[in-house]
Amino acid sequence: xxxxxxxxxxxxLAPGARVELIAxxxxxxxxxFARGVERLRGRYQVHFDASIFERQGYFAGDDARRLRELEAxxxxxxxxxxxxxxxxxxxxxxxxxxxSARVRQQAPLLVGFSxxxxxxxxxxxxxxxxxxxxxxxxxxxTSDALFARWCDAVEGRFVASFTGLTTISxxxxxxxxxGGNLAVLSALLGTPSFPSLAGAVVFLEDIGERPYRVDRMLxxxxxxxxxxxxxxxxIGSFTQADPGPDAVSVESVLHERLYDLGVPVVAGVPAGHIxxxxxxxxxxxxTLDATNGQLHLHGRQA
Length: 302
Description:
By secondary structure, this protein is α/β, with parallel strands linked by helices. The chain has two domains: 18-154, 3-Layer(aba) Sandwich (Rossmann fold); 161-296, LD-carboxypeptidase A C-terminal domain-like (Glucose Oxidase, domain 1). It has helices at residues 30-41, 63-75, 100-106, 117-126, 136-139, 144-154, 182-188, 211-223, 250-258; strands at 18-22, 45-47, 79-84, 109-112, 130-132, 161-162, 166-169, 172-181, 200-207, 232-239, 265-267, 280-282, 285-289, 294-296. Strands 6-14-13-8-9-10-11-7 form an eight-stranded mixed beta sheet. Strands 2-1-3-4-5-12 form a six-stranded mixed beta sheet, with helices on both faces. The longest helix is centred in the N-terminal third of the chain and has 13 residues, at 63-75. It is globular.
């Protein structure tokens, strides 16, 4: 696809940088969070508001608290990154009240995944880079080696390539890596919060969605014309997606819904709701070689 790619602002961390922790979605395990905070404090200046521990049903406090916390994080002086405590559910209830111009002005790095995909969409609208990767509570459970890799990523040093991926549709493309959780992004479809994916290599992952529901969401994307302007698709993990009585697998659904779009498509990127959740640089240019099952993340900054 011809045309220049969008230019994203990328502000990766340096040791000693100020990071703001937020809980814009669900409540989290406080012991895991404490261990994650301890690890982060060994390398960065860590700040969070005491209200982060509030709970209201399946939210980390009410909408007003979570929105206020995120707005305060964006307004904090010298903030280099905004890191989510956990995903869950709740960001879609507040994302429409957030201003992409504020994100563009402050340009902090966003780190998170799952429900945080709604914020990745906002950062994409602002053309500010973000990292699809582990969150604070997850950092409290992970190994030292994976935490070291996470630090490398948020400091701008990503794994260079993924190889051995499964080809769904052959071909090669270069584009800006964007995307996230399929269900969360699908919830934004048709709203002003849905990001432009023109010129993107789109990454998608999910958890707990039966194959027919994955089919329904991808069909909605097709019917809405979302895939018309993308350059390629890279599929991550689709966990807890067991077939129903019909025996249709999620792998067969992904193939059938994506193979005929006229762009290169691969599956098997090791990122999403898995223990070894590889960090992905949203907002950077990557190259996708679907014919040979490769995704190269060492491309130049968008």
